[in-house]
C-alpha cells in the first residue's frame, strides 16, 4: 500500500481534506502537523499543543521528521516547510535535513505552495499595477524587502529543485516557482456542503472574511460599502478571529461574498462559500490566469471587481440581485467540477506513483449534483 505523509502544517485545511480523499482511494495517507492553530483545523497527529514548544516537543518533532522518510513513500510538504526546515533557516547545514534525507532515500517529495511562502514581494510590486505587496497594503512589506524575499529566493533555488513535483494554489506564484503546476483548492468536501441560496429581497448581507486585512484589501471594501449604504440596505459582516466551525455558521447567512480585491485570485474561503451556493466577487489578475486549464478559466463564475472602481463594480452587482440565486448555482456547479477533492485526489495519487507524468484533472464526468445545479 502506498504510504503518504502530508506535513508539517494544515494551511487552509487543504492537506486534511486531500488526505481523507486519498484514504478513500485506498492509500495510507496521514496528516501530521507541528502544532495546532486558532482555526482548530484537524490532523491525525499534533506534535505539540501550541507554537510555543517545550524541549520535549522539539525532540518529538526532530525524531518524527528524521523517521518520516523511513515510514512513508511520499512526503507531501506545505507552505515551504518541512518538519526541520524553513526559509528562515537558510545557511544552516541542518536546515531541511529531513527533506534532504528523503531525497537521498529516493522517496518522492511533493511541495504545495500557497502564497507568501514563495511569492516575491518586490517582484509583485514591480510587475503589477494592483497588488497587496506594496507599502500601505500588507503590513509585512518592509520585512519582505529587508530579508524575507532573500529567504524565498534561497528556497526557490536550493530546495524546490529537490522536489519531484511542486504545486501552486495561486496562479501568480508561477512567476516565482518555475515548473510548478497549478492546483485548484481541494479544501472542502464540496458535495457534502449544503446549499444556502442568497435572498433576493429584504436587507442584503454582504460578507467578507479577512484573514489579513492588508492582503485582502478590507479597507477598500469597507469604504465602498459605507458609501453604498446611502442607497442600498446593506450590512457588511466581517468574519475574523473565529474557529473554522464558527465561521462556517456566519457564511451560511451571506447573500453576496467579497473574497479580496488586491491578491488577484480567490482563496479557499471562496471555495467554501461557493459550495454553499453563494455568489462571490473578487479581483482577478488576468495576466496570471494562463496557467489555469483553459476550460476552468472559461467557466469561472467569480464576479470581477477592481479596487479602483469598487463602488461602481459592487453597485453593478447589486442591481442584478434577482440573478444571485442563479449565480450561486453556477458557483456551486463550478466547485463541484473543478474543486472536487475526490477528483483532485485521484490525480494526486497518479502523480505520487508517476511524478513525471502530466498532471491532469479528470473533470469529464460530471457528478449528478453538478449537472442538476447547472441546469
Q: Keyphrases for this structure?
A:
375 residues; alpha/beta; Rossmann fold; 2 domains; 7-stranded parallel β-sheet; 5-stranded parallel β-sheet; 14 helices; globular; disordered C terminus
How would the blueprint of this fold be written?
Elements: E1 3-7, H1 14-24, E2 28-33, E3 45-46, H2 55-71, E4 74-78, H3 97-104, E5 108-113, H4 121-127, H5 141-158, E6 165-168, E7 181-182, E8 204-208, H6 213-216, H7 218-228, E9 234-238, H8 244-251, E10 256-258, H9 268-275, E11 280-282, H10 294-299, E12 303-304, H11 310-318, H12 324-338, H13 341-353, H14 368-374
Description:
The protein has 375 residues and is an alpha/beta fold. It folds into 2 domains: 3-186, Rossmann fold; 190-338, 3-Layer(aba) Sandwich (Rossmann fold), CATH 3.40.50. It has helices at 14-24, 55-71, 97-104, 121-127, 141-158, 213-216, 218-228, 244-251, 268-275, 294-299, 310-318, 324-338, 341-353, 368-374; strands at 3-7, 28-33, 45-46, 74-78, 108-113, 165-168, 181-182, 204-208, 234-238, 256-258, 280-282, 303-304. A 7-stranded parallel sheet has the order 3-2-1-4-5-6-7, with helices on both faces. Strand 11 (280-282), helix 10 (294-299) and strand 12 (303-304) form a beta-alpha-beta unit. It is globular. Residues 364-375 have low confidence and may be disordered.
Amino acid at each position: 500500500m502506498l504510504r503518504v505523509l502530508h506535513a508539517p502544517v494544515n494551511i487552509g485545511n487543504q492537506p486534511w481534506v486531500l488526505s481523507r480523499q486519498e484514504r478513500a482511494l485506498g492509500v495510507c495517507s496521514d496528516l501530521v502537523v507541528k502544532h495546532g492553530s486558532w482555526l482548530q483545523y484537524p490532523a491525525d497527529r499534533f506534535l505539540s499543543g501550541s507554537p510555543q514548544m517545550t524541549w520535549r516537543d522539539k525532540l518529538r518533532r526532530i525524531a518524527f521528521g528524521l523517521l518520516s522518510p523511513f515510514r512513508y513513500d511520499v512526503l507531501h510538504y506545505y507552505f515551504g516547510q518541512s518538519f526541520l526546515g524553513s526559509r528562515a533557516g537558510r545557511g544552516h547545514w541542518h536546515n531541511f535535513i529531513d527533506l534532504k534525507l528523503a531525497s537521498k532515500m529516493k522517496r518522492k517529495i511533493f511541495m504545495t505552495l500557497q502564497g507568501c511562502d514563495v511569492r516575491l514581494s518586490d517582484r509583485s510590486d514591480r510587475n503589477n499595477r494592483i497588488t497587496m505587496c506594496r507599502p500601505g497594503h500588507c503590513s509585512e512589506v518592509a520585512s519582505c524587502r529587508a530579508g524575507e524575499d532573500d529567504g524565498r529566493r534561497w528556497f526557490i533555488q536550493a530546495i524546490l529543485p529537490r522536489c519531484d513535483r511542486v504545486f501552486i494554489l495561486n496562479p501568480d506564484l508561477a512567476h516565482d516557482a518555475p515548473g510548478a503546476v497549478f492546483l485548484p483548492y481541494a479544501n472542502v468536501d464540496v458535495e457534502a456542503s449544503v446549499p444556502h441560496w442568497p435572498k433576493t429581497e429584504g436587507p442584503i448581507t454582504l460578507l467578507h472574511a479577512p484573514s489579513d486585512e492588508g492582503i485582502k484589501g478590507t479597507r477598500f471594501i469597507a469604504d465602498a460599502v459605507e458609501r453604498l449604504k446611502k442607497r442600498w440596505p446593506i450590512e457588511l459582516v466581517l468574519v475574523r478571529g473565529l474557529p473554522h466551525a464558527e465561521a462556517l455558521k456566519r457564511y451560511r447567512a451571506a447573500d453576496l461574498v467579497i473574497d479580496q480585491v488586491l491578491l488577484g485570485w480567490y482563496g479557499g474561503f471562496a471555495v467554501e462559500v461557493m459550495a454553499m451556493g453563494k455568489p462571490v466577487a473578487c479581483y482577478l489578475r488576468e495576466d496570471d490566469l494562463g496557467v489555469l486549464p483553459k476550460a476552468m478559466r472559461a467557466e469561472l463564475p467569480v464576479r470581477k471587481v477592481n479596487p479602483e472602481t469598487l463602488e461602481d463594480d459592487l453597485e453593478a452587482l447589486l442591481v442584478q440581485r434577482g440573478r444571485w440565486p442563479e449565480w450561486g448555482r453556477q458557483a456551486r456547479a463550478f466547485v463541484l467540477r473543478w474543486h472536487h477533492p475526490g477528483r483532485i485526489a485521484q490525480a494526486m495519487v497518479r502523480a505520487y506513483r508517476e511524478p513525471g507524468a502530466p498532471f491532469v484533472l479528470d473533470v469529464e464526468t460530471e457528478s449528478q449534483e453538478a449537472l442538476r445545479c447547472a441546469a
